[in-house]
Design a protein that fits this description.
Number of strands: 12
Helix content: 25-40%
Order of helices and strands: EHHEHEHEHEHEHEHEHEEHEHEH
Strand content: 15-25%
Strand order of the largest sheet: 8-7-6-11-9-12-10
Radius of gyration: 20 Å
Largest sheet: 7 strands, parallel
Distance between the termini: 50 Å
Shape: elongated
């Protein structure tokens, strides 16, 4: 194991953890791709198990000898392992780091939507499509629900937050490494889905919406659940072009849930016959 002890947060060896914003990480080696930083043993383990390539590890000396940390370090291969005191770790992150470990990893090349859905192909398939969801917490929560309720794949329009942002991965518990996903053009989303063999169900508060428990939806062999922006929902174009408009029946004059909560309800209902 290649252990390097770090005594100051300004050490150039760990600059990737201290000096780069999320956009800078995404373009770290442009035009040859970027990196991302995963946090916690669970997330990093799921990333490694999902085929991601570690480049270095930064670990709090206080947790270094823990069994789960040692097991993870044995998995990451021959990469630099930077060990730092707790106060240095908190200077780097700005808060107490739960689990005490970070890992920089090579960003994967994203597949095409066609190849993602080819891998999810089966007689009955349910996928999620996220349109312009900008909050990493919501993106992470949707991925976690998608994994929990057996959604086959996730597609994200170009305006949606990157699932490999650290907060999204943390909230999603690394489930983005367990599901196939990729980005698609925001133009003509429903037409793209139709060309890939999927009917679209837009979660939208419009007059001609079906309720989520409608047998029509349950009987569709391949259905894409479309979830929109936190403030504005789906675009009018997407709603107008969708095969179905869908609402979740609610009481007490509540008309909507946030994107993360709505996705969990929709995924549960539409994956159970």
């Amino acid at each position: 194991m290649n252990i390097v002890d770090i005594t100051a947060s300004g050490d150039a060896l760990i600059s990737v953890y201290t000096s780069c914003s999320e956009p800078q990480l995404r373009h770290y080696r442009d035009p040859d791709g970027g990196i991302f930083i995963a946090e916690s043993c669970k997330v990093i383990t799921r990333a490694v198990n999902g085929g991601m390539k570690p480049e270095s590890v930064l670990v709090d000396a206080a947790v270094f000898e823990k069994d789960e940390v040692q097991e993870l370090l044995a998995k990451v291969g021959d990469v630099p392992v930077y060990r730092a005191p707790t106060d240095v770790m908190e200077n780097i992150t700005g808060y107490h780091l739960t689990g005490g470990i970070l890992c920089s990893m090579t960003r994967p090349l994203l597949p095409s939507a066609e190849s993602v859905l080819a891998g999810a192909s089966k007689s009955r398939s349910r996928i999620a499509v996220l349109e312009n969801i900008v909050n990493p917490t919501n993106v992470g929560a949707v991925f976690r629900s998608a994994a929990a309720f057996n959604i086959d794949a996730v597609l994200l329009t170009e305006g949606t937050c990157d699932p490999l942002e650290r907060r999204a991965m943390r909230v999603g518990m690394g489930t983005m490494f367990q599901l196939p996903w990729t980005f698609i053009s925001r133009e003509n989303v429903c037409g793209t889905l139709r060309s890939l063999g999927y009917k679209s169900a837009a979660m939208a508060l419009v007059d001609d919406s079906l309720t989520l428990d409608s047998p029509v939806l349950k009987n569709e062999p391949r259905l894409a659940v479309l979830i929109g922006n936190e403030g504005n929902g789906l675009t009018d174009e997407t709603i107008g072009n969708a095969d179905y408009k869908v609402i979740i029946p609610m009481s007490h004059e509540v008309d909507s849930l946030n994107a993360a909560a709505a996705s969990a309800v929709a995924f549960w209902e539409l994956t159970h016959s």
